[in-house]
Amino acid sequence: MIFRKLVVCLLCLLFVGSLNANVKDTNISDLDKTSKDIKDEYRLYYVKRGDTLYSLLDEIFSPAEILEISKKINNKLNSFILKEGQKIKFYKDKVVINAAVDKDLTILKNNEGFNIVVTKYDIQTINYVVNGTINESLFKSVNSIGEDDRLAIMLADILQWEVDFFKDIRKGDHYKLVVEKKFCRSKFIGYGKILALDFINRDELIRAYYYEDDKISGYFKYDGTSLKRGFLRAPLKYSRISSKFSYSRLHPIFHKPMPHLGIDYAAPTGTPVYSTADGKVIVRGYKRGNGNYIKISHNNGFYTYYMHLSGFAKGIYVGSRVRQGQVIGYVGATGYATGPHLDYRIKRYSKFLNPLKFKAPTKKMPTSKIPLFRENIAKFKNLLDNTYYRY
Fold first, then answer.
1. Per DSSP, which regions of 251-390 are E strands?
2. Of residues 112 and 279, which shows the higher confidence score?
3. For the whole model, what pTM was predicted?
4. Tens digits of per-residue pLDDT, 96-139?
5. To which H or E segment does residue 16 belong?
6. Pair 267, 242: CB distance under 8 Å
7. Confidence at 369, pLDDT banded by 50, 70, 90
8. Beta bridge pairs of residue 206
9. Quick count: other Cβ atoms within 10 Å of Cβ 388?
10. Confidence class of residue 216 from pLDDT cuts 50, 70 and 90?
């Protein structure tokens, strides 16, 4: 009898010990962790075409609350707009909208209704040295070293008067750039400025630096010569030449040889047309052959013509002052035209010039500014001269 009681006691002790062991495994910190995991769970959603704040929030907030939420969002972020592909996280008691690369918009649900918080993240800018060699095209070269197409576009834009990237590029051409890269939340979000560059084209070195002060800005060679000429190479982007300058071209409408004293750029209707230089609009109107056209007067006896436009840019009138690169109109097919294109012409005094052979005048910074310019670009000169990857 006594033996049976001892056995029962031992079994009871073992059972209680087992319970204690189980309780120890599920301690307070683990319970907190489980609760936290539940609180941090969210449903990820990407904004689709046609989504609105109401359609996204109607299961969480009342129509009156959503209206008030919309008003408060616009007060805090006046440029806020839902965009297709935008990321939204739905938590149990809040909604987090990725409002911009550097901003999150949080809508917190509480007993009083809701609260809105805007979280802004720092953007870090780091200067990198990027090297590349061209074997086929600039774009393919830039992509092959892990960089974005935007960098190729930036470089081509800076060098547009020094290098024709359609005709002048040769296999083995090389570039080295000091470029700003921007990061937010540990992710690359884009480029800043190209601060300095070397470009070797056909064994000839082009080196330039970015410089700005209160009066000038742009890319300059070490002697202060600007890479930006008095005139852009072309008055529009992403086009092809459909007809060249000629004193005797077979006219596509009249079918007889006639002078064509400009360059035709074929491009879709509505393509923006840029003024190729600073100047003053002296004609904005319609002429039977020219269609809608603009004539601009520039310094030193130069005039430019932009013909067959579908329309004029806002604010462009006779007497308007325009800047180089400013949109003045849009490609069309008005006047004598068989399809949408821009007829672009350059004239100096009374003589028309071939835009493809035209050597635009160079610009140079004032001599008095060169010492400070050289002092400011010294560190970038050293980066190009050495092989540091980044600093």
1. 257-260, 263-266, 272-274, 279-287, 291-297, 302-312, 321-322, 327-331, 341-348, 351-353
2. 279
3. 0.65
4. 999 888 999 899 888 888 888 999 999 999 999 999 999 988 99
5. helix 2-25
6. no
7. very high
8. 199
9. 13
10. confident
358 is written with which tokens?
């035209």
* Structure tokens belonging to residue 260: 């064509």
Alpha-carbon 239 to chain mean position: 20
SS3 198: strand
Token code pair at residue 216: 């000038």
129 vs 120: CA distance, rounded Å: 29
CA 45, 47, 53, 56 torsion-angle sign: negative
Q: d(Cα 305, Cα 241) in Å, to the nearest integer?
A: 16
Is the separation of the CB atoms in 234 and 277 below 8 Å? no
Q: Quick count: other Cβ atoms within 10 Å of Cβ 381?
A: 15
The mean of the pLDDT values for the chain is: 85
> Tokens 């393509």 map to which residue?
271
Question: pLDDT tens digits, residue range 133-183?
Answer: 999 889 999 999 999 999 999 999 899 888 877 677 889 999 999 999 999
Backbone phi and psi for residue 237, each to the nearest 5 degrees, phi listed first: -110, 160
Q: Is 24 helix (H, G, I), strand (E, B) or coil?
A: helix
Q: Which two tokens stand for residue 327?
A: 């949109």
The type of residue at 317 is: Y
**Integer Cα distance of 213 and 236 in angstroms:** 28
Token output for 1: 């009898």
Q: Which H or E run contains 187?
A: strand 187-201
